């Protein structure tokens, strides 16, 4: 692969016009530098997937499916839009998308922080298991479906069936909600929630006032067996 370091301070530059994603990821899995700049991604899939060390990766352009998937400690920024499943199954670290994200952003992720400065499509945070997701714009329908743990912050509007079959994740929405899914209800916004929301907004670099948000979560009705559900 072709990775050049211009100086001790400059990132290692990887040009995907001449280097394969497989070669890039092999380098990132056993890095010889602490900071990489990826050029000409051209919507390639699985860019910077499987990073497991605290390195910094800047992707200059749009990324395809599963960018930064399985991230475990890296700081990865997509300077553009990201396709389906960005930061899927992330364990720790920071993933930032400066544009929009397609469906299933942060799916099944266990930890870390995912920031989408634009909007996200449907199923954002599906089956999230501890990740924090902050979206600067809107999210699509069926977001936070079966969300088990973590926090989802939406600075715009939320689509239909938000939080369907939710477990213990906390959802904060600044704008309107088209509809709530099964077992998802609006909940009281206490001081502790405003404090944690303020921390998440600060970490994401967004200036909104936590007082502008409403909180949603599980009514816990689906936790219990009822005879009326038998056939």
From TrEMBL:
It comes from the Bacteria. Transmembrane segments: none annotated. Gene3D superfamilies: Glutamate synthase, alpha subunit, C-terminal domain. CDD domains: GXGXG. This is Protein glxC. It comes from Pseudonocardia yuanmonensis.
